[in-house]
Specification:
- It is a single chain.
- This protein is mainly beta.
- It has one helix at 80-92; strands spanning 5-14, 18-24, 35-38, 44-53, 68-71, 95-102, 114-118.
- The chain has a 6-stranded antiparallel β-barrel.
- A hairpin with a 3-residue loop joins strand 1 (5-14) and strand 2 (18-24).
- The longest helix has 13 residues, at 80-92.
- 17% of the residues are buried.
């Protein structure tokens, strides 16, 4: 049986939040407690919640069963409308942001790394 996978588009640490992963997946959301396992290293991470942008949450896809947190982003040189459109385009490509907690390590997966999804 093929296990579903998420592809890491980017991953970074944010003070006060923890790790944020931009994940491309075909699931109907990732519930809290869902385990992500690297196909390369075998390292594991646990989904805590989905990140929604304060400036765009009303146009973002909402999946039942996901816990959510709202984040303020510094837009810099980008207009509010450009930032909103970027999120819409990412979601059209099934890319969503999640706060992730590592299991017994502090490593981030690499860009385009595949993570096996084990539902909670």
């Amino acid at each position: 049986m093929n296990m579903p996978v998420a592809v890491v588009k980017s991953a970074f640490k944010v003070t006060g939040f923890g790790m944020i992963f931009f994940l491309k997946h075909q699931q109907v959301g990732l519930r809290p407690g869902t385990i992500l396992i690297s196909k390369i290293s075998g390292l594991k991470w646990k989904v805590k919640c989905r990140v929604l942008a304060v400036h765009a949450f009303e146009i973002q896809k909402i999946f039942e069963g996901e816990d959510k947190v709202f984040a303020h982003y510094l837009l810099g040189e980008v207009t509010l409308e450009e930032a909103r459109l970027k999120i819409v385009k990412e979601e059209e490509q099934h890319i969503y942001q999640y706060i992730i907690e590592p299991f017994s390590h502090q490593d981030k997966p690499g860009e385009n790394e595949e993570l096996v999804i084990e539902e909670a």
